[in-house]
Amino acid sequence: MKTYKYLFLLIGISIFGCSDLEEEPVGLLAPDGFFNTVDDIETAANGAYGHMTHEDFWGRKMSLTLMLRGDMVDIGDPTTSTRRIEHNEFNVPTDNGMISGYWLRVYQMIAAANQAIAGADDVNVADEIKNPMTARAYFARAFAYFHLVRQFGDIPYIDAPITDLEASSSISKTSAADVYANIIADLQFAKTWLPDTQIARSIPAKSAAHSYLALVYLTIGDYQNAYTEAKGVIDNESVYNLGLEADFQSLFDASQIDNSVEPIFTLDFIGASNGDDGRDYQAALTGLRDDEQYGLGGGWSVGVPSLEVYNTWDGRDYRKAVSLDTTGVFDGVLQPYQVFRESGAGRGVNRPHIAKYTRAIGETATGNGRGSNANYMMIRYAEVLLIAAEAHNEISGGSAEAMGYVNRVRARARNSNGVTSGLFPEDIAGLSQDALRDVILEERKWELAFEFKRWYDIARRQLGSDVFSASGLEGDKPNFDPSQDYLFPLPAQELARNPNLLPQNPGY
After folding, report:
1. Among candidates 146, 68, 61, which has minimal Cα distance to 105?
2. Of 342, 373, 404, which residue sits at a domain end?
3. pLDDT digit string, tens, across residues 360-391
4. Residue 400 falls within a domain, yes or no?
5. CB proximity list for 108: less than 8 A, separation 6 or greater
6. For burial by CB atoms within 10 Å, which of 140, 355, 502, 507 has the most?
7. How confident is the model over 25-65, as pLDDT tens digits?
8. Number of structural domains, the chain?
9. Measuring CA to CA, which residue among 289, 317, 293 is closest to residue 304?
10. Domain range holding 305?
């Protein structure tokens, strides 16, 4: 049900890039007396969520950056923007346009959340009435900082509206450890006050805060707390109205996703846009150029899986068929991927393309799919099961409980439209801790393929030297440097404006 639409806050959202004094600040302070009711808190909090679907953030820049830095998606169109190719090749300069494009947007998201949190203090009602709404702002702030800290490490941490421009021009970085502590505190507040369920999964419920706590703890290697939080979600499956979608394809069908119990927190694209505000570019960026089969006018073949992704993915795994397109239609003729380029000038590379964002994008999709009403799952229940599996294996190596969570996810992977393959997956009983760890990470790779998770897994597990070697899915990536590339460079223009943000991340 797309009954909930985000409002963009026109007051209280500061145009803030740490020390960007050359820009005219807009709405540094909400007008006196603006926050009087819970509805005012909601308006401010919704401003944070409105930024999430912008082209600068999940519409294109951050999402595509994460996809290209992983080991499953390569550049299909060598003429695409250099700023994209730089991430794919680990040759990222400090003025990379992808990073500078979304850095400011994320801090606008944070500024809106801060305004809601600060403004709630002025609303004179009981905590039981206002805190469930304020908790949405705490969740949004944690969500934004969680992306930033994983990408940049030490970053400016701002937890209140900016009231002093001079002071803001000399802000320093906060250590990654302290940023994580603040993220956890925000999520704990959200978990305490958010309701068990909401009218739409694009509005965070208690399950979203609960699940993100599990993921945050997993990311920082606190496996006991990661397991505790993930197990708490699993134990409350019925309370939170969660479960695994019976058919994996339904998770990527815009006509079905709103009624699914598997998504935990989604970004809601509504098939309309104001310029680049609210536009969904992934279908365009990952779709097959000139393909006629989905009525989108074809995609751009920018982010395309390497051929080894297709070759090494077990064909008995139903997720492979859902996730990849191996055929395209050109001039009314169905063609296999081996001849995509030969089928006509300008068409995609001869590799299967990503199907998750094109096959069932919704009736209102227009302009290569950019006008889409398909939701993006930021976290879903299958991932929580795999978080529990990974964390419990680290606590109790080779545990049967961890294997049970993996097998629950795998059971669906061998079920294609109600037909179960008895051959897949293989038995994992009795595996050692190390062997089971490898299985779980592989399971995350295939279950969450092309869902913008893989780079974060590579970084947190320090897998780069292996997955970007000659034996990796994309072959040797000689520019990858483990002493540098697990972090992105801080935007050069921010360091120039505010030397207190120095030093730059190592290697840049």
Report:
1. 61
2. 373
3. 988 777 889 888 888 999 999 999 999 999 99
4. no
5. 13, 14, 15, 16, 51
6. 140
7. 333 445 566 899 999 999 999 999 999 999 999 999 999 99
8. 2
9. 289
10. 282-373
